[in-house]
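Incident log entry.

Two folding requests arrived from the same account within the same minute. Monitoring flagged them as a possible duplicate submission, but the sequences differ. Recording both here for audit purposes.

Request one:
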Amino acid sequence: MATLVTGGTGFVGINIVKTLAQRGHDVVCFDVSAADVLVRKYLKPVAERVTFIQGDILNKGDVELAASQHNITKIVHAAAFTPNVAPSLEIERSRAIVDINVVGTANLLELASRLSLERFLYVSSEAVYGDTRDPEETLYEDSTLDPRNLYAITKYTSEMLTRRYGQLHGFQTVSARLTSPFGPMERVNPYRGRMSLIYEWTGNVVRSEPIRAGDRNTGRDYTYVLDTAAGVCTILDAPSLSYDVYNVSAGRSVTPHEVIQVLQELRPALQVIDDPTHRGRPPGAKEDVARLKEDLGFVVSFDLASATRDYIQWRETFPFLD
């Protein structure tokens, strides 16, 4: 028996792969990008439980081949095109966004419909709630959704496809809506261009550079990626689920000011330069995580300080200084 993880060499995907392997899963790590030196080094402690397959979710043959070689009993579909670098990218790559995020999902669901599958988990996003929310708002799984850009629309479409395929073909499905992750293995790739503010600033720290800060008071629901992966794996492995969608988040809003305070506690010599032109990620509301806690007993393990400390330590010892 094995668990298939698509997008398995990506930022969130690789942390899901590692967490699953640590929990005893045999994992098929499927991605259009080959497993490079960094990926293999990161997964070295669990290498005996991970099989790498390079393939394209838009190629049905690649997807079928991955399944034919392994007894797949669970699927985590994390592969996605996240075009949040610049508004122009949505114009330039409109069809690619739709193809990868919707057609790719349909290909995985078609595969799932022909397997004796225990559970199919779709990795969704807070983007489905909309990007014009009041930063003081709390987002519940049954909050009104307002997806407007192609990424958000395709993520919500894939949630609906996942639900309906499960109903039609008799396999369990669930979607996990993630908030802004940060942590080990966050890096630029062809399908993910904009990094988190904490990625940027911890990079400055490990390179002994000053950080530049603009607006320090608008928060986002940043979640340490090890907690993100643990939450996803908890949903995947739960004996039963009361819902078909869960928020996976730290459930708190973190401001740049709070991040700076933590960084200065860890590195008292850190220089902070006020720069009104510096633009971080837009503010975002926080997700409510009561459903995840009350139904499955999951709570995050890291607060902002411990997560940032752990991330900097990983950057320095790995080392990853980009």
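Request two (distinct sequence, not a duplicate):
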Amino acid sequence: MHRDELQQRIEDLFEKQEKSDKARALLKECRELLMQGEIRVAEPIDVFNAEGLRPWKVNVWVKKAIVLMASSGDLQKMQTAHPEVWGTEVDTLPWRHGVPNSCRMPLGSHMREGAYMGPGVTCMPPSVIQIGTYIGESSAIDSMVSIGLGAQIGSGTQLSCRVTIGGWMIPLDHLPTIVEDGALLGTGSGVYDGAMVGKGAILLAGTQMIPSLGILDLRDGSHTQREAGKPLIVPPNSIVAMGSRAVLGGVAIQTPVIVGRRTGPDARSWERYSDIAFAIP
């Protein structure tokens, strides 16, 4: 089916909220195209500029298709190899069977149908990858990583153990959570609510990118807050740690802080700390 026709049929189905075999077949086609990387929740519409940024477009109709999958299915008992292990799930959000081609994914992780994993990706167990996720080629996902609905992960990224990438589906016209090419997320760090981690940026262990907290820049003392309808962006090649800032009454609130800049020529390099310049005194 042509993409424009598929989009129109999803838009119509979203308005009617129809539950039928025909609707299920349409949603299955969307899951298959998502798994192939042919359609995406969001996609870059230009190349990186000199500052390492590029514009993104959200595909609202793809988000609507995922919402329909969550709302229009019927609960069924999940089939497992062991009768004593069971669960229930809607039949329009099945878990994927089999590993994507040219990927290393040892037994123990779970990936939804409708998630895409590019060639050369490594995903260590136990990790969970939700529908609408897009993971670019040659990325490395360590154990106990959780990637939420619609998250877009660039090529050559490294997600360390216990990283959480939050899903962000509503509002439908907002970009999802995005991690650009070559970024490195340290152990236990997280990116939530439609935040964007720029190309080659490093989040040190435990850093939590929560847009409502904004981001401090230790280099000039500025505090950037999220603009309505726009993502909070970690600047490309920035090094970010978890810090705090003073609020009313002398209370301090945890806030991510830019503490330096990655200086290496290759933003996709996996060398951790050999090419960075810290601003910490």
